[in-house]
Amino acid sequence: MNFPTTIAQALALTLLFCSCNPQNGSKEEALWIISAPAGSQYTRIDQSGKTVIPNGRYITPAGKSIVTAPHPYGLTLSPDGNIAVTANSGTDPLSITIIRNILSQLMK
Q1: What integer pLDDT is reported at residue 71 of this predicted model?
Q2: Phi, psi of 96, deg, nearest 5
Q3: 93 upstream amide cis, omega within 30 of 0
Q4: According to the 3-state scheme, what is the secondary structure of 10-49?
Q5: What's the pTM?
């Protein structure tokens, strides 16, 4: 190990320990609790609003969404862009989803 790397590691450890130590005699400090925005909400799909994904984040679709079978892994479009096929790789069943007339659905 070279000298600059050792110095950098020692500095990083010092900063880590200093940031974790409470300061004696200081005013009561606020406790920081870090959590995902969804808090204790379970994963759910809400087609008309905010969906909670497994890591606790929210997503809101921009535009039209189309429901497929669970665990879509791959997506391909036909040359004219009017048919989409997803390969779904869940544990059971392995399947494909064929979505027809995409352009007509998006125009509504």
Answers
A1: 84
A2: -125, 155
A3: yes
A4: HHHHHHHHHHHCCCCCCCCCCCCCCCCCCCCCCCECCCCC
A5: 0.48
